[in-house]
Design a protein that fits this description.
Layout (H helix, E strand, L loop, with lengths): L2 H4 L14 H42 L4 H5 L14 E6 L16 H7 L9 E6 L12
Antiparallel strand pairs: 1-2
């Protein structure tokens, strides 16, 4: 089968938009009206309370993280890190060379792609990752 049938010659929809000056003005007016309504609803006391809460939140968020919190995380041994094997195959397409820094793994994925028909006329990179479910048990403190 021809790859054009599935990839290139399929019908498509393109939407081109441009910014609307009228909508931008409306959004600005709506936001000013919303703020004015909020100020009216809160009143002077409510505004003072909101400012107080905001300053308290800013103060809380600007505190440095305690060193003991950062140093309490256990550092695993590098040998315990599990690297996920990835098989990759590149089909360069017409008039393009395969990236020399990224070699195909020439494993089962390569054989599977090659057995699926003619190469595609445009660049495609296939990456295959075998998924395994890993469950982590939380450590007790």
């Amino acid at each position: 089968m021809c790859a054009f049938r599935y990839y290139i010659d399929q019908p498509s929809v393109v939407i081109i938009g441009k910014p609307s000056a009228m909508l931008a003005d409306k959004l600005e007016r709506d936001e000013k009206a919303r703020l004015a309504e909020q100020v009216k609803k809160l009143g002077p006391e409510g505004l003072e309370e909101a400012v107080k809460k905001l300053e308290e939140a800013k103060g809380e968020h600007s505190k440095p993280i305690p060193t003991d919190v950062l140093s309490s995380f256990p550092i695993p041994d590098v040998k315990s890190i599990f690297w996920i094997p990835v098989q990759s195959v590149q089909e360069p397409g017409n008039g393009r060379k395969v990236n020399s820094r990224h070699k195909s793994t020439n494993g089962t994925l390569q054989k599977y792609i090659e057995s699926d028909g003619r190469p595609l006329p445009f660049f495609v990179q296939y990456d295959h990752v075998e998924v395994r479910t890993v469950y982590f048990r939380p450590t007790t403190c």
